[in-house]
Design goal:
- The protein has 3 helices and no strands.
- The protein is mainly alpha-helical.
- It has a domain of about 90 residues.
- The protein is rod-shaped.
Length: about 140
């Protein structure tokens, strides 16, 4: 039983490390997304300004069309970035639920529940035999994360 608890604790530790690594990656991606969004807004503003200047100076139609094409690509990039942003948010939500739903986590919860029951039984037996039992510490429940 002790080996099972140790194995479950090790699996939980590994899962927790993996979860923290994934959270670090998500944070990094969110920062990168924010930077890219700012850059994209700047580029879009620059293209709008460029088109306005080209129209004011009477630039040829080919140049104006190229500028319009580049601006359209910027908008497409922004749409793709928004799509990836939504995908990233979905991944973050999935990652948060994955740890709690993992079989190792559930097994550890069950083991803790069993051990708490055994401790209660042993305490009551000791008390019935007349021994003073220290009930200090924190009792964990199966729903504790």
């Amino acid at each position: 039983m002790l080996q099972k608890v140790q194995d479950a604790e090790e699996q939980t530790r590994v899962m927790t490390e993996r979860y923290q690594m994934m959270q670090g990656q998500v944070t990094s991606l969110l920062q990168e997304r924010s930077t890219l969004a700012t850059e994209l807004d700047t580029v879009r503003g620059n293209f709008t300004q460029l088109r306005t200047q080209m129209a004011a100076t009477g630039a040829d139609a080919t140049s104006q069309q190229q500028a319009a094409d580049m601006e359209a690509k910027v908008y497409q990039s922004q749409t793709a970035m928004h799509s990836k942003s939504q995908e990233l948010d979905a991944m973050r939500r999935e990652m948060d639920t994955r740890l709690a739903d993992s079989s190792q986590f559930k097994q550890l919860k069950n083991i803790i529940k069993e051990k708490n029951g055994q401790i209660k039984t042993l305490r009551s037996q000791l008390q019935s035999l007349g021994y003073a039992v220290d009930t200090g510490g924190q009792e964990l429940t199966a729903d504790s994360d």
